[in-house]
Specification:
The protein has 3 helices and 5 strands. With 153 residues, the protein is of the alpha+beta class. A 5-stranded antiparallel beta sheet has the order 4-3-2-1-5, covered by helices on one side. Pfam families: DUF6173.
């Protein structure tokens, strides 16, 4: 019987991205994991926590490629649900993620998603007219990942 490969700090999680050209976009898989994320072995993380951390890295990387006229939003697959302008992300161990924000009409919106059904499409939306600078949630969320005393409930 084959043994399952263990992941630890010396053996980080595997990732691979194929690009059409060397000039393609910078992807999160090409970057090293932040120290705070890498120092906790995967075996000690719930599926929700690990998905939460990776989503934050993907959102931050996506935002790094946006101009000052656009903000990150999340598109929904299937149905007519539209998009969610991301204002917050959370998780509830062991297996639930939640996304907070507003829809295209400014209505308060929350999506609660089981990690086994997670399918996220990041989209660039024009920033809200009344805001001077684009809202960059990925950078704030990534900074929280680096804090030693992240709040737990």
């Amino acid at each position: 019987m084959a043994q399952k490969k263990q992941t630890s700090r010396s053996n980080p999680p595997r990732a691979h991205t194929a690009k059409c050209s060397q000039d393609g976009p910078v992807v999160v898989d090409d970057k090293p994991l932040p120290k705070k994320i890498a120092e906790t072995p995967l075996e000690q993380k719930s599926p929700a926590e690990w998905a939460y951390e990776r989503l934050i890295l993907y959102i931050k990387n996506f935002e790094e490629q946006l101009d000052n006229e656009h903000e990150v939003a999340m598109g929904f697959t299937g149905g007519d649900a539209g998009v969610l302008r991301i204002e917050g992300i959370g998780y509830f161990d062991p297996d639930v993620l939640t996304f907070y924000g507003s829809d295209g009409e400014g209505m308060k919106t929350q999506l609660i998603q089981h990690v086994s059904q997670l399918s996220v499409m990041l989209r660039a939306l024009p920033k809200l007219v009344e805001s001077e600078a684009p809202n960059r949630i990925g950078f704030r969320l990534a900074a929280e990942l680096e804090e030693d005393d992240a709040p737990t409930t």
